Amino acid sequence: AMGQRGSMCASAQEEEPQRASAPPCNTPAPVVASTRTEDRPQGEVQKAFASQVDWEAVLAHLCAHPTVEEHYGDVVRGLQSSGQKILQVRTLVPLAKAAYASKPGSVEAKRSGVLSGYRAFAEKKGIKWKEHADSLETEGVATFWEALRSKIRRDVVMPAYYKACYDGPIHSYDKGNGEWMAAFDAPSAYLLVHLHHFPVLTPQAAFDALHEELDGLALEHLPGTDRYIRAIDLGCGVGTSTFSTRRSLERLGRHGRVTGVDLSDYFIAVASFLQEARACEFNGKVDLAFLHGDALDLASCGFGEGSVELVTISEVTHEMPRTTSEALFVEAARVLVPGGVLAYLDLNPAQILKENSIGNLVDRIATSNEPYFDEYLELDVASAMRAAGLEVVNETWPNKAKYETMEACSLRIFIAKKPAPLTIDTWTGRWGLHSRENWAPWLKFLGVPEANHAAATSAPDFHEYSVGTDMFRMDHKTGGMHLRFTTFIDGELHSCPYPIPTSRLHDDASSKQKVQCEWKHEWVETPVALKTTIVNFAGLGKTVTFERRVVTQDELKMRVQVLEPGSGEAVVGPCFATFHRLSTEPPASEAAALKELFATGVSRPLEWRLDAIDRVAAMILENIEAIS
């Protein structure tokens, strides 16, 4: 995939333009009304392609011609406004390219002028662009850098779309991905193009905030600190986004390995150099590597099917043809393990098409600033991810404190997961309460005062499970009560270990009387739905059922109903509690620990035994305080 490179000209912000008034009823409606969008840049970076000719009015006039109306009117009117705008852009791009070609050196001068503007503005904002680029270049291009490039370079066949931007131009460079100047400039350029998203922060802090937000959204779906995370950053460029993912994992106490993959040997060489230079920033719990390779062929990079937990694609696909982006999602899905996560960040076509003029977009394509930009603007990311076999779990945008809607932000974020089959092992781990629905009838049945309903509904609740086909082990902690038990899944009644219903912990002391109950457990749908039935629940003469169901790898839903003992008619509920996974660690088992100890033949010292007694006593005291 392309080197990660934020667009050197994001789009402008502007009010929705007004359409031209409708023609008289006896006159055919124009195919396209003039919708002039005056670029109003957010910063110096965007001004490079602003102040264009009013092509909207010209094209509206053209499309109103009777011949165009006769042959293409219905077709064009059938397009959405975004499709009409892309069509208009594609109409003009060949003319713009021909105009540049008729003036030798003009497009090169344009790129050079744009780049000079970027560098000057960056320096004003505290980005030491020249100093940093010069510090890299002084290592010696002919000696150090070419030797490093030779060392990291692999035998990689470049796709045609990429080779065109390696041997030829992209962004503001005549050999965009195949020259040292672009690679040396890249770290500063990344800071510049992200600056406007967090304007109150320093350039580095703004970049970090953006990528930490992306990382955080992805890692929400890879819970637990015990899980070793293997991650790939596709189109990593000089590694700025890769470093961010590594930092985010380490801050969460995770262990793993992050690999940045890019087709540019120039960019990978700089990334490898920066890896050494920035080593002191990291604690070493997450390994890091950079690899010269093709993200469309990760098998050639050593990544087999289902070999990683996390894939990140940060500002890459706007530099690709649409079909190449779709193929990239397919390859990402292939290497993800079931339950693995794809984190995606790139430019937002909705905002770009709304708030950038036709001339702005035409110039970006004609100068090869973004040679495939018209195709990118048509990329339906959510549909492409689903077609690749992924489930889109979040579609959002960064820094909602600044941008109230997605359409207002020039970036968009997608988080997708590779579906995983639900098995008996899906239960294993720690789950925390996320929400309760229709909980008041349940509390009313238990006699909890209405004044305590809000506290009872929002009370934390934690379940730890280890489930087999015929038994399950559970560690349950809520409201000061802490129980750990093993029980059978056999449809037979057994003694229930709960002294009182946990919701009654929010009642007054008079109702906290122990009532010995019996319960049974059975599969409703093996291995995803387990039902617990308690007869004469809490001495109230009713039967209560708790049906737990794993909905996804990370969500468990519990359905509570109160039934008449004879008829089975529901008198309360269903009431629901939703739990989200916190870890994949099974509940601790004192018996298992002792069994392992006995197997060693080594006895524990007295100090260990006294400590164990203290821990048991602490658990007893927790429950006495809760129920006595």
Topology diagram in text:
Blueprint: H1 44-47, H2 55-63, H3 66-77, H4 81-101, H5 106-124, H6 129-137, H7 141-152, H8 160-166, H9 180-194, H10 203-219, E1 228-234, H11 240-251, E2 255-262, H12 265-277, E3 286-292, E4 308-314, H13 322-335, E5 336-347, H14 349-355, H15 358-366, H16 373-376, H17 381-387, E6 391-396, E7 411-417, E8 429-437, H18 440-446, H19 453-458, E9 461-467, E10 471-478, E11 481-488, E12 494-495, E13 518-525, E14 529-535, E15 543-552, E16 555-563, E17 570-583, H20 590-600, H21 606-627
Parallel strand pairs: 1-2, 1-4, 2-3, 4-5
Antiparallel strand pairs: 5-7, 6-7, 8-9, 8-17, 9-10, 10-11, 12-13, 13-14, 14-15, 15-16, 16-17
Q: Can you put this structure into words, describing what you see?
A:
A hairpin with a 3-residue loop joins strand 13 (518-525) and strand 14 (529-535). The protein has 21 helices and 17 strands. Strands 11-10-9-8-17-16-15-14-13-12 form a ten-stranded antiparallel β-sheet. It is an alpha+beta fold and 628 residues long. 40% of the residues are buried. The protein is elongated. The model is unreliable at 1-30 (pLDDT under 50). It has helices at residues 44-47, 55-63, 66-77, 81-101, 106-124, 129-137, 141-152, 160-166, 180-194, 203-219, 240-251, 265-277, 322-335, 349-355, 358-366, 373-376, 381-387, 440-446, 453-458, 590-600, 606-627; strands at 228-234, 255-262, 286-292, 308-314, 336-347, 391-396, 411-417, 429-437, 461-467, 471-478, 481-488, 494-495, 518-525, 529-535, 543-552, 555-563, 570-583.
